[in-house]
Amino acid sequence: MRKIKVGDDVMVIAGKDKGKRGTVLRIFDDARLVVENINMAKKHQKGNPQRGVPNGIVDKEMPIQVSNVGLFNPRKGGADRVGFKFLADGKKVRVFKSDGEVVDV
Predict the structure, then answer these.
(1) Could you confirm whether domain 9-44+58-96 is CATH 3.40.1010.20?
(2) What are the helix and strand counts (H, E) for the chain?
(3) Distance between CA 54 and CA 71 in Å, rounded?
(4) Which residue from 7, 44, 63, 102 has the highest number of Cβ atoms inside 10 Å of its Cβ?
């Protein structure tokens, strides 16, 4: 079980986009992930009218290290660390370290 999953709301805690929030779009491996509108880079792209791809310079999301993001805790209003806990029925769930609240139900 991963501490950060696709679709999670995360906050950048280090780097050029520190303080920004976004949703996890893709996870490449245990070390890198792509977050919506975070770590943007310019890409010079050749157009393809048959596929509807525009030409010119486009913005593209690039991967960011997992260690540079934290799961957003709405109760705290910022990034928080994540741990694991077993419920009474034996189910393993993610919990916020600061207040022990369950992340996913």
Answers:
(1) no
(2) 0, 10
(3) 34
(4) 63
Helix (H, G, I), strand (E, B) or coil at 100: coil
- Cross-strand bridge partners of residue 32: 65
Tokens of 77: 């209003």
Residue 102, both tokens = 């369950």
What are the residues facing 85 on neighbouring strands?
A: 93
Q: Do 77 and 15 meet the contact criterion of CB atoms below 8 Å apart?
A: no
Cα-based distances in Å from 90 to 40, 41, 59, 93: 41, 44, 45, 9
What gap in Å lies between CA 47 and CA 57, rounded to an integer? Answer: 10
> Nearest 5°: phi and psi at 41?
-135, 150
Task: Please report, for the chain, the start and end positions of each structural domain, with discontinuous segments joined by +.
Answer: 9-44+58-96
